[in-house]
Write a structure and sequence with these properties.
This protein is an alpha/beta fold. It folds into two domains: about 160 residues, Aspartate Aminotransferase, domain 1; about 240 residues, 3-Layer(aba) Sandwich (Aspartate Aminotransferase, domain 2). Helices cover about 40% and strands about 15% of the residues. The chain contains 14 helices and 17 strands. The strands form four sheets. A seven-stranded mixed beta sheet has the order 4-12-11-10-7-5-6, sandwiched between helices. The chain has a four-stranded mixed beta sheet with strand order 1-2-3-15. Strands 13-14-17-16 form a four-stranded antiparallel beta sheet. A hairpin with a 5-residue loop joins β16 and β17. α4 packs antiparallel against α11 and α5 packs parallel to α11. The longest helix has 24 residues. The radius of gyration is 22 Å and the shape is globular. The protein starts with a helix and ends in a 7-residue tail after the last helix. The model has no long low-confidence stretch (mean pLDDT about 95). The structure holds pyridoxal-5'-phosphate (PLP). The site of pyridoxal-5'-phosphate (PLP) has 15 residues, from α6.
């Protein structure tokens, strides 16, 4: 048995994932993790989207080790380095230009919330307005600006100060009739609505933490049009759903929209190293030198692995085809799990390789995740009540690992369903 006493004694009560997965991990490769007892786990969590290419992808490890051996620059604030030069060139060549996108690249601090803070600050500066519209069940990070556009009540309460200058409106399908975009339109067009003219709208195309809520292409297009018609900037937070997660490099590509500002982090380094970008249309780049900064903007180790990742996976569209194939395998398999348990109150949703198994009763999703851990599968829950079993395997997962994980999951749902039918009184109604 693993000994968790060091963590329980010394680490703050704020720790969370380690409570769901009470073991000590020490090795990882691809879509597998091993604990100190040698137990292997299939990883359907992928660092909450920071490990889209799995753990320790060999070409990335090699590039990083070689860079370290050559005494490559590690820390450099925002000085010009060879590693940053290479990253910018590859990002332009493999990602921006083939998609007809013209963005300038800001390196904020290396986390997702740093990218969001930079985006909000820039939008407010450009428009000279305070108000930002965000959406129900949005998640944009834990610093105060990002929390102010985040929906979750428990996380908002943690702020300890008022979270202001933002308005939360219903996301696609939050309202029964799918009328949320009409509501936004009405609020913007009626001078009596009480909604201050926003500087920007910030949106995730698929809400990850919010429970794999998928915005339709049409909803996103209408949102983009509404923003353009009303002189409002559109910020897409692609921190979790970018870097291929939904099937294309940027999650908004198939909507045919070009957001004014884009936030990227989690998987942009390809290796799980801290790195973030805030992309902005060139005419929005009104920053003064040093007006927004941060000590760890120049994480060169991440630039090295990011450049190799883009080169390796995004030089043509074959990787997109692979993601689509695996995503539809996962969706079919979840649909068959749900279909086998008509009495359990379970449904599926998702896009690409971000897929959720949604339970009416959050206690069941929690039971499934717990059962999964005991059976060697790492999968987390999401959504306002934790009612969604959220599957985010690495995009590079091989078929054997994918099928093994899906089989474990199916067996776990079967066992939870069996327990449910034997103990119906246990179920919250
Ligand atoms: C994870 C996440 C963030 C915050 O990123 P951190 O690196 O944890 O600060 C912001 N937006 C979205 C959509 C995320 O999924």
């Amino acid at each position: 048995m693993v000994d968790l006493s060091v963590f329980e004694t010394l680490e703050s009560e704020v720790r969370s994932y380690c409570r769901d997965w009470p073991t000590v991990f020490n090795r990882a490769s691809g879509s597998r993790m091993w604990d100190t007892d040698g137990v292997a786990y299939v990883d359907f969590f992928a660092g909450a989207g920071a490990l889209n290419y799995g753990h320790n992808f060999p070409a990335l490890t090699d590039a990083l080790v070689e860079y370290l051996r050559d005494d490559g620059i590690i820390h450099s604030l925002d000085m010009s380095t060879v590693a940053k030069e290479r990253f910018l060139q590859v990002f332009d060549e493999k990602i921006l230009r083939p998609r007809g996108l013209n963005y300038k690249v800001q390196f904020p601090g290396p986390t997702g919330t740093n990218s969001v803070e930079a985006a909000l600050k820039l939008a407010r500066k450009v428009k000279g307005r305070e108000q930002i519209v965000s959406f129900t069940n949005a998640f944009h990070g834990m610093t105060l600006g990002s929390l102010a556009v985040t929906g979750n009540a428990m996380k908002r309460r943690g702020a300890g100060v008022p979270l202001s200058h933002t308005t939360s409106l219903p996301y696609c399908n939050f309202l029964e009739e799918g009328s949320s975009i009409g509501l936004l339109e009405a609020l913007l067009s009626d001078g009596g609505s009480g909604l201050d003219q926003p500087a920007a709208v910030i949106v995730e195309t698929v809400q990850g933490e919010g429970g794999i809520n998928v915005a339709s292409w049409n909803w996103l297009r209408r949102l983009s049009e509404l923003c353009a018609e009303n002189d409002i900037l559109l910020i897409v937070d692609d921190v979790q759903m970018g870097c291929g997660r939904t099937g294309t490099f940027f999650s908004f590509e198939r909507a045919g929209i070009q957001p004014d500002i884009v936030c990227l982090s989690k998987s942009i380094s390809g290796f799980g190293l801290p790195m973030a970008l805030t992309l902005m249309k060139p005419e929005l780049d009104v920053w003064n030198p040093g007006e927004h900064n941060g000590t760890f903007r120049g994480n060169n180790a991440a630039f090295v692995t990011a450049a190799v990742t883009l080169d390796q996976f995004w030089s043509d569209n074959s990787f997109e085809g692979e993601i689509e194939e695996k995503g539809s395998l996962v969706s079919r398999s979840l649909a068959s799990i749900a279909g086998r348990h008509p009495d359990l109150g379970v449904d599926t949703r998702g896009r690409g390789m971000a897929v959720g198994l949604v339970f009416d009763d959050p206690r069941l999703s929690s039971a499934v995740c717990k059962e999964a851990f005991s059976s060697g599968l790492l999968v987390e829950s999401a959504g306002p009540a934790g009612e969604v079993v959220k599957l985010m395997p690495a995009l590079t997962i091989d078929n054997d690992d994918l099928l093994e994980g899906l089989t474990i999951l199916a067996n776990c749902v079967d066992r939870v369903a069996e327990f449910e039918s034997a103990h119906p009184m246990m179920r919250a109604k």
